[in-house]
């Protein structure tokens, strides 16, 4: 397995190409088990090693509340999302992939939970603060 | 008194043993709540709060 957290290289390339658009596109978070190979070379969503279990649908959930902001003082552009909740949720997950379903499921970022997270009832992911120094996706 | 959704259906929390835990590292803060019935885990809710991730840094060339 290889789980490395961060924005994928293909995502950075597509930013310069202008083929990732946080003002119009739809983004998803998919959950994976500890056998996943998710790292900075991941180019797109795959169902390989994606979790299964009560309450989870392949492909994950759409991220809502997308906000694109910039901080002129610190010269940082940043994106954040609303949190996600799975309920019911009876599964174990180790990591997640954010991907762009509007652009052939191209990858955006890998999130490593650091350890297996097992639940039988509810699984909630809360995003970091929506600021230039903490938002989930930042470009400086 | 409160109802808890468990693997055995909704149950009064007074019948269950509750255990809470947390984990904090550079990536996330995780909290969980477990309910146990006669030594069997019947409910586990997990809440992951992500911390900031590495930013993408772009630097213009200097002349």
Q: Please identify the structural class of chain B as seen in this structure.
A: mainly beta
Instruction: Please compute the radius of gyration of chain A using only Cα atoms.
Output: 15 Å
The radius of gyration of chain B is 20 Å
Question: Which strand order does the major sheet of chain B show?
Answer: 3-4-5
Ranges of chain A with pLDDT <50 over ≥5 residues?
A: none
Proportion of residues in β-strands of chain A: 35-45%
Uncertain runs of chain B: none
Number of helical elements of chain A: 1
Please estimate the helix content of chain B.
under 10%
Query: How widely separated are the two ends of chain B?
Result: 70 Å
Largest sheet of chain B at a glance? Answer: 3 strands, antiparallel
Number of strands of chain A: 12
- Strands of the widest sheet of chain A, in order across it, are 2-10-9-3-5
Descriptive overview:
The complex is a heterodimer of chains A (140) and B (63). Chain A is mostly beta strands. Chain A has one helix and twelve strands, in the order E-E-H-E-E-E-E-E-E-E-E-E-E. Chain A has one helix spanning 9-17, and strands at residues 2-3, 6-7, 27-32, 37-38, 61-62, 67-71, 76-80, 84-86, 91-100, 106-119, 122-126, 137-139. In chain A, the strands form four sheets. A five-stranded antiparallel β-sheet of chain A has the order 2-10-9-3-5. In chain A, strand 9 (91-100) and strand 10 (106-119) form a beta hairpin. The longest helix of chain A is centred in the first third of the chain and has 9 residues, at 9-17. By secondary structure, chain B is mainly beta. In chain B, the strands form two sheets. In chain B, strands 3-4-5 form a three-stranded antiparallel β-sheet, with no helix packed on it. A two-stranded antiparallel sheet of chain B has the order 1-2. The termini of chain B are far apart. Strand 11 of chain A pairs parallel with strand 5 (40-50) of chain B, so a sheet runs across the interface.
């Amino acid at each position: 397995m290889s789980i490395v957290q961060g924005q994928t290289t293909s995502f950075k390339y597509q930013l310069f190409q202008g083929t990732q658009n946080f003002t119009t596109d739809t983004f998803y978070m998919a959950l994976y088990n500890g056998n996943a190979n998710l790292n900075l070379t991941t180019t797109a969503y795959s169902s390989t090693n994606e979790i299964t279990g009560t309450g989870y649908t392949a492909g994950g959930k759409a991220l809502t509340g997308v906000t694109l902001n910039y901080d002129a003082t610190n010269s940082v552009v940043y994106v954040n999302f609303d949190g996600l909740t799975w309920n019911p949720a009876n599964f174990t997950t180790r990591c997640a992939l954010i991907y762009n379903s509007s652009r052939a499921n191209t990858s955006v970022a890998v999130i490593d939970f650091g350890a297996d997270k097992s639940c039988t009832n509810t699984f909630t992911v809360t995003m970091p603060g929506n600021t230039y120094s903490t938002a989930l996706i930042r470009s400086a | 008194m409160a109802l808890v959704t468990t693997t055995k259906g909704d149950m009064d929390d007074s019948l269950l043993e509750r255990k809470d835990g947390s984990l904090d590292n550079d990536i996330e803060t995780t909290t969980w709540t477990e309910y146990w019935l006669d030594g069997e885990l019947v409910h586990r809710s997990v809440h992951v709060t992500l911390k900031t991730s590495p930013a993408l840094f772009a630097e213009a060339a200097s002349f």
